TrEMBL record:
Keywords: ATP-binding, Helicase, Hydrolase, Nucleotide-binding, Nucleus, Transcription, Transcription regulation. Gene3D superfamilies: 1.10.8.60, P-loop containing nucleotide triphosphate hydrolases (3.40.50.300), RuvB-like helicase, domain II (2.40.50.360). This is RuvB-like helicase. PANTHER family: RUVB-RELATED REPTIN AND PONTIN. SMART domains: AAA (SM00382). GO terms for cellular component: nucleus. It holds the Pfam family TIP49.
Length: 456
């Protein structure tokens, strides 16, 4: 086999429009650094977002919401993502768009409540008896099939586990062997088995095998300390929506009718209010006993003006609930009609009573210098070579048109540069691309000039 024929196993992943956002980018005094953590400019909005993060961390944000208001392309979604990044990876972040509520399958209020529950996490701490260690032996023992026939069945499985303190050999049920196969456990892996439920969790490969290969996508963990059989605190993170789904699922038997019933059931089923109240009771009991801790996440509703008066009324009640996430709205509308009404015009298309209880953060248009900085960050994120002169030219285009249009020109210009045999983007590629693709203002101008040629 020739070396050139071997293809790389590296996955080509799509780079999302906000994958460069790593946080809000504030200094230790809470002031915004001009360009930090992927964000540029918008100092006042970022400092306000920093205060929101502090309110959330100190658990003083309950029952409140935030509205990010500003023209299109001023970084509202980026700011919401930055707030979620600042709160940490374990904090649930649930993004949605206002138009998502108009589903043909379930009610508007149900969609809102489902997303509310997705944004509320529950951290459950349990002390369990476990067998933990590095797998030294994994032998399934087979016997003749008791049902007759030719095949053999696994009667039990012998597992050898090793820790820094000692070793133990276990003889376990065949059901645990199935769990081991699902987790793809091999000799040399560090695992733990819960003694009560028999649940198996693979933690990673033992770090004694770390130098086995030059490059591999394996996570190495140290050899566990203490005995093989021990009491261990297991932390599990779930959302309230996960609990709703688990309890709403029919617990039918193995007969054909119950299986058919489950197959015929529609994909999305409405979870009743009664079920949610019961789950809330159990959750509150766990919190009082200190077994669980509530982790309020962030529910981000973009294009909030798309919601109607019914949704706003429902949101009002949901925000006052004892179990509620932090809600961040975003809109680019000024004064407009509230959807679902005939004559009520309000700021941002939201009712005044809801606006009254919201902390509003304003985002402002970017300057040419800030646009150039953002374009430079995007070029680095997408591994695009571009000279300073071309960046300045794109920044000038962004000022005349929009930042989004300037960002969208990056990738096609890069492709054209490669076709032309160049290392990076030059002025010629940008000029050619801006001639090939129109922005919204150019398109509107053409429509105004040649309106008689288009259908009305």
């Amino acid at each position: 086999m020739k070396i050139e024929e071997v293809k790389s196993t590296t996955k080509t992943q799509r780079i999302a429009s906000h994958s460069h956002i790593k946080g809000i980018g504030l200094d230790e005094n809470g002031y915004a650094i001009q360009s930090a953590a992927g964000l540029v400019g918008q100092e006042l909005a970022r400092e306000a977002a920093g205060i929101v993060v502090e309110l959330i961390r100190s658990k003083k944000m309950a029952g409140r919401a935030v509205l990010l208001a500003g023209p299109p392309g001023t970084g509202k979604t980026a700011l919401a993502l930055a707030i979620a990044q600042e709160l940490g990876s374990k904090v649930p972040f649930c993004p949605m768009v206002g138009s998502e509520v108009y589903s043909t399958e379930i009610k508007k209020t149900e969609v809102l409540m489902e997303n509310f529950r997705r944004a509320i996490g529950l951290r459950i701490k349990e002390t369990k008896e476990v067998y933990e260690g590095e797998v030294t032996e994994l032998t399934p023992c087979e016997t003749e099939n008791p049902m007759g026939g030719y095949g053999k069945t696994v009667s039990h499985v012998v597992i050898g586990l090793k820790t820094a303190k000692g070793t133990k050999q276990l003889k376990l049920d065949p059901s645990i062997y199935e769990s081991l196969q699902k987790e793809k456990v091999e000799v040399g892996d560090v695992i733990y088995i819960e003694s009560n439920s028999g649940a198996v969790k693979r933690q990673g490969r033992s770090d004694t095998f770390a130098t086995e290969f030059d490059l591999e996508a394996e996570e190495y963990v140290p050899l566990p300390k203490g005995d093989v059989h021990k009491k261990k605190e297991v932390i599990q993170d779930v959302t309230l929506h996960d609990l709703d789904i688990a309890n709403a699922r029919p617990q039918g038997g193995q007969d054909i009718m119950s299986m058919m019933g489950q197959l015929m059931k529609p994909k999305k089923t409405e979870i009743t209010d009664k079920l949610r109240k019961e789950i809330n009771k159990v959750v509150n009991k766990y919190i009082d006993q200190g077994i669980a801790e509530l982790v309020p996440g962030v529910l981000f509703i973009d294009e909030v003006h798309m919601l109607d008066i019914e949704c706003f009324t429902y949101l009002h009640r949901a925000l006052e609930s004892t179990i509620a996430p932090i809600v961040i709205f975003a809109t680019n509308r000024g004064k407009c009609l509230i959807r679902g009404t005939e004559d009520i015009i309000s700021a941002h298309g939201m009712p005044l009573d809801l606006l009254d209880r919201i902390m509003i953060i304003r985002t402002l248009p970017y300057s040419q210098e800030e646009m150039t900085q953002i374009l430079k960050i995007r070029a680095e994120t997408e591994n695009i070579e571009i000279c300073e002169e071309s960046l300045q030219q794109l920044g000038a285009i962004g000022t005349k048109t929009t930042l989004r249009y300037a960002v969208q020109l990056l990738t096609p210009s890069n492709l054209l540069a490669k076709i032309n045999g160049k290392e990076g983007i030059s002025k010629e590629e940008i000029e050619e691309m801006s001639e090939l693709f129109y922005d919204a203002k150019q398109s509107a101008k053409i429509l105004a000039e040649q309106g008689d040629k288009f259908l009305k």
